[in-house]
Amino acid sequence: MLAFFGFTQNFLVILIEGFFGGTRAKGKFMRLLLIEDDAKVASFLDKGLSENGYAVEVRQDGRSGLHAFETNPFDLVIVDWMLPEMDGVAVCKAIRERSSRVPILFLTVKDAVADKVTGFDAGADDYVTKPFSFLELLVRIRALLRRGDTAVETFQVDDLEMNISERTVYRGGEAIDLSNREFSILEYFLRNKNRLITRAVLTDHVWNIDFDRGSNVVDVYINYLRKKLDCGSRRPLIHTVRGAGYTLKDPER
Q1: I need a surface site. Which of 29, 36, 103, 152 has the fewest CB within 10 A?
Q2: Percent of the chain scored above 90 by pLDDT?
């Protein structure tokens, strides 16, 4: 079974490459949505991708997969074609109808040229057929993430400005000194402006750990950020969504 997924192919090399190959982008851990109805395939992929440093969320039908995508931000979507509730082509089209630029990779047994054309026409960025090499899948995922990684280096909301390459933050023309963790959190909020960000998503992206409901570490850092960002301003940017998480809103909305 392992050989089917390519896990016997230099798996140690894969793990080493995953560690040094850069599964982080601009200070965050990459979050993948895997929509796969075969429990064994999903389990192997979840384990392999997680061991290579990715944060993986698994859904086993198309409808719940699309709901997960609409609820939380992801850096890449891996989707099977033949899914219950809603097939992979419909999921892909629905994501693209939302004007999302997130990379989508089809992973399916359907290997006919006509099927591949259908998949790409639906909005997929890559197409991998089963059986597959796990090493090749990793390489393709990394390539898609590099291609999909935004070239935007500066962000602005209200009078707040962030420059990623220079690692500077200003509000109202005044420099704000942030720790590395605070900078990563703010960057993630700015990349997902006006979207609900749950505590679990923040821990996945910024800390790359499972969310501990008993921990208040996220709330502590949000308070640190608020004190620094809102000092001297009457327009708070980070807002609490009671019982759900946080959102960074443009004051105009």
Answers
A1: 152
A2: 39
